[in-house]
Specification:
Layout lengths: L2 H25 L15 H4 L4 H18 L1 H8 L4 H22 L7
Helix pairs in contact: 1-3, 1-4, 3-5, 4-5
């Protein structure tokens, strides 16, 4: 394991910890200002949405992203080629699910 490997692992772990911390804030129903799109809406539009439910949903999506972030570095260090690919597949699947789920059925409308 070289110094750059350790640096990459430390960096991805740090990013993962930050994402998990943000996910915990969102899971508590706080931090609506962190949600892109929602935070740029005028207050009149924001009032039409259940901010707490939206925050919890985004937190549930963000939590696995943060927990799995070090997988990219671990895959590179130990030459596990499928691990980063699996990570990106999970992230892509979560993103697609989140977009479809959030934009159908009016789930987050008051």
């Amino acid at each position: 394991m070289t110094g750059s490997d350790v640096g990459g692992l430390v960096l991805t772990c740090f990013i993962g910890v930050v994402l998990v911390a943000l996910a915990v804030v969102l899971l508590c129903g706080k931090g609506g200002f962190l949600i892109a799109g929602y935070n740029t809406m005028p207050p009149k539009e924001q009032a039409k949405y259940d901010e707490k439910a939206l925050c919890r949903f985004v937190g549930k999506i963000l939590l696995p992203v943060g927990l799995l972030s070090p997988a990219v570095a671990v895959g590179g260090i130990f030459h596990i080629g499928w691990l980063p690919k699996a990570y990106f597949a999970v992230i892509t699947a979560l993103a697609l699910f989140a977009v479809v789920y959030a934009n159908t059925g009016g789930r987050f409308r008051k």
